[in-house]
Description:
The protein is 34% helix and 17% strand. The chain is of the alpha/beta class.
Amino acid sequence: MIHRILVVRLGSLGDVVLTSAAVLNLKLAYPESRLVYLTKERFAPVARLLTGVDEVLALPEDSSGRAFITTLLQLDDRNFDLVVDLHGNFRSFLTRKLVSSGNAVSYPKRRLSRWLTTQNLQVTDAPPHTIDLYNKALEKAEITACAKRPIMHHWNLGDAPASLSGRRDLVVIAPGAAHPPKQWPIEKFLAVARGLIERHGAHILWTAVGSDRLTGESRREMGEHCTELVDLPIDQLAPILAQAQVAISNDSGLMHLASAVGAPVVAIFGPTHPSLGFEPRGIHDRIIQVEEYCRPCSLHGKKPCFRTEQFCFTRISPEMVLAAAGEHLTRPLNKAVFFDRDGTLIVDKHYLSDPDQIELLPGAIDSLKRARQSGYRLVAISNQSGVARGYFSLESAQAVSKRFEQILAESGVALDGSYICPHFRSGTVPQYSIACDCRKPHPGMAEQAAREHRINLHRSVVIGDKLDDLNLGLVSGGRSILVRSGHGALAEQSTASIALYNRVSVIDSVQDLSL
């Protein structure tokens, strides 16, 4: 059993954010473990926002090699069961070697492949994302990766200013970048801001660091439609980003932070490229880019442009960015309640295959109606492993699902979506006995619904009677509600003493649902 885990990612901002999925996967695999995160001091506030981190060890920015070794020797006394290196540099290598553990794994960094890409010698059609590479490290420790997107949960972020909470016109613009060559010109960001104000009545939250600050003229021009946020610490900026209808940025750490807290991102890529594995990965994120023969010219966008002008940026017009961002203001994302079916909305008949045996639980219809009145989309998601186990056919499972929808409709409730997963890895029917991305707690069904119905999963709720339902809420970025009906009482008992589930609400049955 693994009781103590050390995760190593020393920097930078975006990379630490991208480890959030791997950290959550570690905690889901070993929920009672103590997870320690080693990073540099300036990124410690970010690491503390990651769900599953119990302790952050911060290395001073100016720490010498001697001080670093001393820190590692002190860590060695803590008897870690697992060390996970998500950095892949010399210092993280030393950590794996000097901190004794039962097992140490590291992620495949793709150094050669990335270098070949920056030299325009190799372009991969489907390159692995950095999150996938982090999860590859976990596979070496036989840990299943359910979370595959950056995730920061709202309960770790704190509260946004009351003046911003609940507003549906907020647009965050973050014009900064770590290196000047990967910064789209400020005047183009200003043109986007003016266009969003004129066309959509947006309120701009201009996130400035140093030279990215607004001039007096620009500030006066946008007036009350713009609030400038200067040098805000990450722990103050994150809850503000979570309120945004859309965030517009360069390829930067703030891009990943916005995506992780659930803000749809419009990201402007110039000298860097998605093939390097650092694109924003939210379901509704979008990249604005133009193809140039010289892209990508460097891994992190440090290299100055050698051409007469930086065509990868000059060919991106404010109108292109305006169109992508404006869609989120004219068609805001929805929130949803994802209902488990058996044991939550209907009586659990143990591998139900007969549509005539469907029996609604008391209060199910009223709860669905209340959720609809509260502005939520209604989606049913159900694991149906009986198909893979050979207990009944897929057609039978679909017939039950269809009849379930009809019964609800006859009572005045139309579901926005209804999804089933027929898979089970240890089943007996080869066609369905596979490891899939849709079986809860994997988020495949929820993500399909999010795409089809423009749902923001971070603002949504999962309600069910099993641990898989609770974990789906965590993996998708939303919140979880456990009902004691069905298998819920057993799930409550098994999770009662585990800190990871402290934020789960528990109700007796679906009729007690309050949103």
